[in-house]
Amino acid sequence: MALIPMTIERPSWSLSPWDNPSILREDEFFRPLNLEQLWIQLQKDCGITLDKNKFQAHVDVQQFRPEEIKVKVANDNTITVEGKHEEKRDDHGFISREFVRKYVLPRDCNVQEMKSKLSSDGVLVIEAPKKPEDQKLQIREIPIQYTGPINKTVPINVPERKLGRQGSVHIEVKRE
Fold first, then answer.
1. Beta carbons of 56 and 117 less than 8 angstroms apart
2. Measured between alpha carbons, how far is 124 from 45 in angstroms, rounded to an integer?
3. pLDDT tens figures, 89-117
4. CB atoms < 10 A from the CB of 110, how many?
5. Residue 110 contacts by C-beta under 8 Å, 6 or more apart in sequence?
6. Deepest in the core among 116, 137, 174, 175, taking most CB within 10 A?
7. CATH of the domain at 98
8. Position 146 in a domain
9. Owning domain of residue 85
10. What is the pLDDT of residue 164?
11. Sheet architecture: strand order including 48-50
């Protein structure tokens, strides 16, 4: 008996697992993903905390000395953390390390009061408090300057059907 007719007669002996329809119906294969647990795990791994009072980022920089680390803030609420050191001699040769991480702050964070701390175990903590409620929406009145009386000729084009002929009328506007 040939091998090809056997696989056609018995689907459980097929060459590909996709050919077996019983595998495709298993509940384990088609269970929905738990995206909430995945999101929580991603947030733990990247070291970002955002709550109602502050934004906080934890960066592992234990391979760098404090003078090799820079934290910068741009006008668009972007924090850039950079670390770089030149080639160092190691047991196996030379080592050169460099990293750049960028974080976008929420709009309601106060960039002026942002702080960064480096712990003794090499964890850099960047913290930006949120703005108080009264600072979030600031409405201020813009004063209007008066420059004096207006003496201006304004040309107005009037359509032909309203006046009977096409032309322009000059109206002199004076303010007293």
1. no
2. 15
3. 878 888 888 989 998 988 888 888 889 98
4. 15
5. 128, 129, 130, 131, 135
6. 116
7. 2.60.40.790
8. no
9. 47-129
10. 46
11. 48-50, 54-60, 123-129, 115-118
